[in-house]
């Protein structure tokens, strides 16, 4: 009689992490480092209050210590979620360890930066209390342990990591989350609303930071936090929900934006928000040309200038050579129409060119516009734009007796001048986003994408490429003109120097193009986020303005290396640049973009 034994395959060994540590040891180090870092925030990191944030108090974290505390708490939460702790398992649908590594590295980055800033600002290591050394040491231990955790993805035997750097990059990846289980509709809507509420809080915190060190630390933590959420699979899950409830998502996004000025007690911070909306809207208009139709336009800022100068001329400015006063709605339509005409006049003879040749011609148009309005001063040419002095003292916008230049009380909140203009610009942004979404989802939008991917093949399929490219150019110019009319009133004056290809302060064509590429070409939310980042960082860190172009170049190089599809990308770009088995976006939806956010 023979005994039958059941053959069972051995369980696959876990894929080693970036550092050669036993899984148990690595997890213990990660726990110890995160817990020790958290405790260190209740110690004094420096003995003097000269460093902003008052890091001298025992038992009460302050300033940058709060960022370290946040990073340590998140690291512990994701560690516990990875071990299946009930109530936290929802945090890691895409894998238990990828997010932990990024959060541990972010915590180390914030802590190391804080101690380094203390040493630099106060003049030496002597200014660091033992609590600071403990914080850096424990954060480093936590990062080492996190890097030693097993990878969430198995090694590819056909293409194993060739060096330690590739091993680290591989260990940070996570598999795509499974299809989201259906939840009650009310719960899904609450999750979407809560997500935008958190986003509003983060944005408001970034704008309200009172000193540069706190803003830099905040950006370091956020730079690791959002990729960590993606590695954990949470952004993929959120994308599934936003695809299912697109109208709710759009509404939640604009409600969050509407609430922003009511959270600001300082009108200077509302100024930043207003300018971000202006330049984000212009970048979205450029996205029609570059992202949808694939036309490289290096002089797009000129259309913004056309709208601004037109509004200045017809809004009753004392130095206007026309001498008419249009109501605001008529000024907006006039500025949009003027930009449309310029778009057609410039596009008609140039859009038969392609690639670099088209880019050179559009760059020339941008410079011709700037030099032209500078010479229309009554001496070198007709007296229309007041030459290099521009058109100052543009009147405030008044809508239905509501003067946006004056303070107003709404629901018990005091709204200053820039808060009023923020709400006005928000309405314009809603209009531009609606136009972009409708165009993208139409037959014309699909034809633009076909031209962008392969113009020769599109022509062979019967698409009139020239007519559709001219339409994209005209639509993009019109949207820029709408934003330009608001910008003219916000800034009181328009001058030729505001509309250059390159300048330390936006708007300029280089800034707008970088915002589109950084955010994600062809998406709705990409240019909005890209423009917000590229404007907010120089606005909060004045020294960065001197190195703006250098930082643009570095950011684009890093983007092409690690995320060539942009910060926000649709599924087409994901499929083009990445292995389809490792996408972190759901099949039904690219991301928040498809919901129109």
Order of helices and strands: HHHHHHHHHHHHHEEEEHHHHHHHH
As laid out across the biggest beta sheet, the strand order is: 1-2
Hey, roughly how much beta strand do the residues contain?
under 5%
Gyration radius from CA atoms, angstroms: 27 Å
Average predicted confidence as pLDDT: 82
Fraction in helix? 55-70%
Structural class: mainly alpha
Q: Helix tally?
A: 21
Give the helices and strands, then pairings.
Elements: H1 23-40, H2 64-82, H3 98-122, H4 130-147, H5 164-171, H6 185-208, H7 212-232, H8 234-244, H9 246-259, H10 267-292, H11 301-314, H12 328-350, H13 355-375, E1 398-399, E2 402-403, E3 408-410, E4 413-415, H14 417-440, H15 443-453, H16 455-460, H17 465-490, H18 509-519, H19 525-540, H20 548-562, H21 571-577
Antiparallel strand pairs: 1-2, 3-4
Helix pairs in contact: 1-2, 1-4, 2-3, 2-7, 3-4, 3-7, 6-9, 10-14, 10-17, 10-18, 10-19, 11-12, 11-13, 11-17, 12-17, 14-17, 15-17, 18-19, 18-20
